[in-house]
Amino acid sequence: MHPKTGIFHCLQSQQFDRELLDHLCVLADKIRDIARSKKGMEYLMSLLNHKRAMLYFVQPSTRTFLSFYSACQILGIQCAEVRDTRTSSEVKGESEEDTVRTFSSYYDFIIMRHPKANFAQRIAQLLDDSERNVPIINAGSGKDQHPTQALLDIYTLQRSFPYRGSIDGLKIAFVGDLVRGRTCRSLAALLSKFDGVKQYFVAPEECQMGSDILEILDRAGSSYEMVEDFTSVIPEVDAIYMTRLQDEWDKEDGISRPIDISKYSFNPEHLSLLKPDAILMHPLPRRKEIHPDVDRDPRAAYWRQVRNGMWARAALIAAIFGTDRNIDDYYTCNY
């Protein structure tokens, strides 16, 4: 466990407090500045070149997988991957728990994406009671949590409004399939750590934000509003967080008819309603929630979001292994 931040496993967004979030965002900025030079990149790659990571991704992923892989490379970490359980002993009947215990025998930490809710938490508890406890980083579990996506989203918001000095006081709209969107669920919970933030949950009734997240906001005294009319919210907010329909869960949820969220798409005509300094976010992949013509507008932040993920995750890994102090010292001496 990191002696200052107290972070070891990264399992859910609620474990990030405001101090840790601010620390990781500043650290991510320092890492990306240091990485601009050959000398700086060589220094970063020397920090954790004695560590090995297992990327256990048994659910489809492009950005999160590559983001973590790249973050590990920045810090000199050697990576291995399992992305298809048909190539592992699980096809012989080995339990998922035994599979991960095997990984912990060879690797110094495990980054995992899994379709089962709370799987990362369960594995972390299992390893806590073992003789070989290594950090677990949850890269997405079921429909409930995606903490490192929430971290990179916070980092994106911080970098998008530098003149405000903080996320405090922002108005943010979440749009689309909110009940099953683990990215917006995790970020909504994390925004409760900031002062004066108002969240708008814009979705049809069957896709509205779950009561568990609303309870977190209520306990924190966070302001939010449930909305059906997307157009009315656009001029009011500083950031819009679009999401796609999470229909890969339809069978599990017992949904047999299509859910229509066509009214919850951002099209070129909506640009005139958006504040001049607002941003448009999306965790990707997208379908038709954002028209491709919107990409050319400077307020479209989702491709910056993708790149921010690499730096935010590098900062998290550095903090878990305590090399954030080395990065701080190097930055102070050279910048």
Folded structure, characterized:
Helices cover 39% and strands 13% of the residues. It has 335 residues and is an alpha/beta fold. The protein has 2 domains: 13-145 and 308-328, Aspartate/ornithine carbamoyltransferase (Rossmann fold, 3-Layer(aba) Sandwich); 147-306, Aspartate/ornithine carbamoyltransferase (Rossmann fold), CATH 3.40.50. The strands form 2 sheets. The protein has a 5-stranded parallel beta sheet, covered by helices on one side. The protein has a 4-stranded parallel beta sheet with strand order 2-1-3-4, with helices on both faces. Strand 5 (171-175), helix 7 (182-190) and strand 6 form a beta-alpha-beta unit. The model has no long low-confidence stretch (mean pLDDT 89).
Query: What value does the Rg take, in angstroms?
Result: 20 Å
Which superfamily, in CATH terms, is the homologous superfamily of the largest domain? Aspartate/ornithine carbamoyltransferase
Please tell me the total number of domains.
2
Distance between the termini: 29 Å
Continuous helix count: 12
Keywords, please?
335 residues; alpha/beta; Rossmann fold; 2 domains; five-stranded parallel sheet; four-stranded parallel sheet; 39% helix; 13% strand; globular
